[in-house]
Structure formats: structure tokens, C-alpha cells
Specification:
single chain, alpha/beta, Rossmann fold, Alpha-Beta Plaits, 6-stranded mixed β-sheet, 4-stranded antiparallel β-sheet, 13 helices, globular
């Protein structure tokens, strides 16, 4: 069963054109000119119940606009969508009881009152029975270690403390679908790690569907098996994160530290039949670049039995570099794949 179903979704905004100078500003008072900007361009995807899916793209790619349509804040220009069996902008009251939302740069907590009072107000908004609320609150407070924060005003919380409270606020009514927009923005590495682990536990124990938008690709790697990549309002990739690495990754680097001097010429001789590249700054350390089509274990087997090795470090494909390359090209197809696709097109046309 799909928790989220999107078909040919489009959102267009009318943007006022501001003419220059005093004369232009005066003219705008009587006759305004508008242009149309399409933020989301006929996208389609589905997310099964219980999946954690990353939704990524550069600034202005259309991520936040999509999330706002999925949460019922914006009405689509065209296309269809269903979230938890509801059409968000038509069945608003029933729909919101089924979702939780965390916006990293906006708060759903009341600034000047205690955290527990905000939670009590949200209980009434979502009409959660008192017993269910207490049981759920106790579980979440214990998991996120908020016992000492409940009576503090929100304005006196650190950013990390506030984000943990925001997660509780979004999950008090036990939603089946959770939307996260930059949930770890500005947080230190310890708090990020705690939040990631908490989200994984919630997904595993309660089957919560999570749609995550973020610029921190470590969030994606830690949580998501699938990623949807958006560029200029269009989906350019929808698939597994590992598949993306395999398609765009160029190889892996293995770094060796030796207990005794080992010449670069000797290392190259041991792997002379393999398409690898060795580099070395001194006789006690060396790096080898291994293409994806070659197993790392095969290369290690040639070296480990013959050299005095004190340390080995394997550096995998850098996801940040991969995503940056895709954004720069505007497509998730590698250049050689584009060439083959064009060649196939020409052959079909020729026939």
C-alpha cells in the first residue's frame, strides 16, 4: 500500500513584475504586470507505507513547494495527489490527524510558555484522548531525554533541545506519515546522530513513513535507502542510494600504512595485471585507486600477504561529490549513457 501517491503534479505561481524607477512604481499602482513561474513540473512518484525516502535538490528546485502541497498548505495547479488515503487540500481536518510535520526553520511550539503546555495544547488540537496522550508522551520524552526540559519556556531552549521537542510535538498524535524539512539544520554532530537514531527506531517500531528533505547528505545516507532528486522542478533521479553510487561513482581509494619501507615500484609489480593507480609520498605509506568494476578484496589479496602493513583505510565514493556532479550536469544519466541513448534514438529514427 502506498502512503503517498503523486501523479503529474504541477504548481505555478503568478509573480508581479516590478518596473524600475519612480515612474515604473507609479505605473504599478494602476496596472500591474505578472509573469508565471512553474516551481513543480508534472512530477510523479509513490512512497510505500513504512519507507524512509530522501527528497533532495538545490535551493529553488521545488522541494519545499512539493512538501507544502503534500501537507495541504498549497493547492496544486494540476495533477493529483493522495497522502494516507486523503487529498490534503480537500479533506484538511481528517488529513492532519494522520501526518506529522517538522520544519527546521519554523516552530509549532509556543515561544513563551513551557514545553509541556505546548504539548497539552497540541493534544487538544489533534483531539488525542488523555490516556493515549500520556502513554505516547512518556515514551517520546524518555526516548529523547526531555525530562528536564518540559517546564522550560521554548525561548530558553538551545536549538538542539528545541528540535527534539519539535519531533515530540509532531509525533504526539501517532501519525503514520512524517514530513521532515531540514530537521537537523544548524545542529551539532552529537544531536544529529541522536535524532537520526530516533527516526530509525520510530520507523522500525511503528512503521512510520518518513519523507525527508535536507541539504545534509549524511542524513540521507544514515536514514534512506531510496532518494528522489529534483532539479528545476523535475525529477531527475528516483531510486536506490547505492544504485546512484554505482552509476556515478568512479572508484574507491585504499590507503596503506607500512611497518617497513615499501617501494612504489614493488606495489605496482604486485598488481601489474590490474587497472589500478598507485601513488606514494614516502616508503611508509601509499594509496591505490581501484575502479568500481574491480573488487577491493582482489587488490588487497595481492598486497596483504607480501607487505608489512600496520593500517588499511578504505574510502568509499563521496555522496556529496556525486550529487554535486549530477546537479552540474542536470541529469542523473552519466555522459556515456546519454550518448548511447542518443545513438539508440538515431537508429530508431533511421529505421
Amino acid at each position: 500500500m502506498n502512503a503517498i501517491q503523486v501523479q503529474d503534479l504541477r504548481k505555478t505561481f503568478k509573480v508581479q513584475k516590478n518596473r524600475e524607477g519612480l515612474k515604473g512604481a507609479f505605473a504599478d499602482l494602476f496596472k500591474r504586470e505578472y509573469s508565471e513561474v512553474t516551481a513543480v513540473k508534472d512530477i510523479s512518484f509513490s512512497i510505500p507505507q513504512g519507507e524512509i525516502c530522501g527528497y533532495i535538490g538545490e535551493n529553488g528546485a521545488g522541494k519545499s513547494t512539493t512538501i507544502k502541497m503534500l501537507t495541504g498548505i498549497l493547492v496544486p495547479t494540476s495533477g493529483s495527489l493522495s497522502v494516507g488515503g486523503y487529498i490534503p487540500y480537500e479533506e484538511r481536518e481528517k488529513f492532519v490527524r494522520n501526518i506529522g510535520v517538522v520544519f527546521g526553520q519554523r516552530s509549532q511550539l509556543w515561544w513563551d510558555i513551557g514545553v509541556i503546555e505546548s504539548f497539552q495544547l497540541l493534544r487538544k488540537v489533534y483531539r488525542v484522548p488523555e490516556l493515549d496522550f500520556k502513554k505516547r508522551l512518556d515514551e517520546l520524552v524518555e526516548r529523547l531525554e526531555l525530562q528536564d526540559l518540559l517546564n522550560r519556556p521554548v525561548r530558553k531552549l538551545s536549538l538542539g533541545q528545541r528540535m527534539r521537542c519539535e519531533l515530540v510535538a509532531a509525533l504526539l498524535h501517532n501519525p503514520s506519515i512524517l514530513f521532515l524539512d531540514e530537521p537537523t539544520i544548524g545542529l551539532d554532530i552529537v544531536v544529529k546522530s541522536e535524532i537520526r537514531q530516533f527516526l530509525k527506531d520510530m520507523n522500525r517500531e511503528h512503521g512510520t513513513t518518513i519523507l525527508l528533505t535536507t541539504h545534509d547528505l549524511q542524513d540521507i545516507e544514515a536514514l534512506c535507502s531510496r532518494v528522489i532528486m529534483l532539479d528545476d522542478g523535475r525529477i531527475i533521479y528516483d531510486g536506490g542510494l547505492e544504485d546512484l553510487k554505482q552509476r556515478w561513482g568512479t572508484g574507491r581509494e585504499v590507503q596503506f600504512q607500512f611497518g617497513a619501507p615499501t617501494k612504489l615500484e614493488q606495489l605496482m609489480q604486485w598488481t601489474e595485471e590490474m587497472p589500478v593507480t598507485w601513488t606514494s609520498e614516502n616508503d611508509l605509506g601509499a594509496k591505490v585507486w581501484i575502479p568500481l568494476e574491480l573488487n577491493v578484496s582482489d587488490v588487497l589479496g595481492r598486497v596483504v600477504g607480501q607487505a608489512d602493513i600496520t593500517d588499511i583505510k578504505i574510502i568509499e565514493t563521496n555522496t556529496d561529490d556525486i550529487v554535486r556532479s549530477i546537479y552540474q550536469s542536470g541529469s542523473a544519466e552519466k555522459p556515456e549513457e546519454k550518448i548511447l541513448a542518443l545513438k539508440d534514438e538515431k537508429e530508431v529514427i533511421h529505421v
